[in-house]
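Ticket #4471: structure output looks truncated?

Reporter: J.K.
Steps to reproduce: submitted the chain below (190 residues) through the standard prediction queue, then opened the result file.
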Amino acid sequence: FSHKALERFVKLHMTELPAEPEQGLLDIGKVVFREEISSPGVRAFWWPRFVRIVHWFVAFEQKRRNAGIIPALIEGRGQLEIDGFTLTAKADRMDRSATGLTIIDYKTGQTPTAKQVESGLTPQLPLEGAIVKGGGFKDLPKELPIEGLLYVRLSGGREAGEEKPIKLDAEQAVQDAYEGLSQLIVQYED
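Returned output as attached by the reporter:
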């Protein structure tokens, strides 16, 4: 529910936040909650969590925008052909700075660690980067460097949200994930 509300909010405000961003996001959240949650009990449980997420998320968004980082892709679909297989992805978000892209995934639970990403156990973000590099996200130039992989944990609990950057060389993680998948495809074909 929260994810869908954030998606709608950011899509509406790709270049500039509204004068009252918290109220705008809360208004969108009310609509999404009505559309998505039929049980009053479930709504009663999740709404206070969502309100806490809104306060954290607006501060997160303002900080990024003030640093010159803007959304470039929200809930975008991409694909890449690799040795006869088609890798597809629906990316939560990609942000663009003056120097490159950060690939972002929203999580309500635990986020993967750098070791899990590096080992190939959780390759989602690096593989999305491989799709970018292969030109598979139509609205993103494949020449953009991948400068960061970021999980945004949104629990709505005592700590409503948290940035969890993967502290790896993002370009290398993308290359390693691509090569790892290529090797798996070759093994599968054998």
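Triage note (M.O.): checked the attachment and the full token line is present. The longest strand covers residues 70-82.
Status: closed, working as intended.
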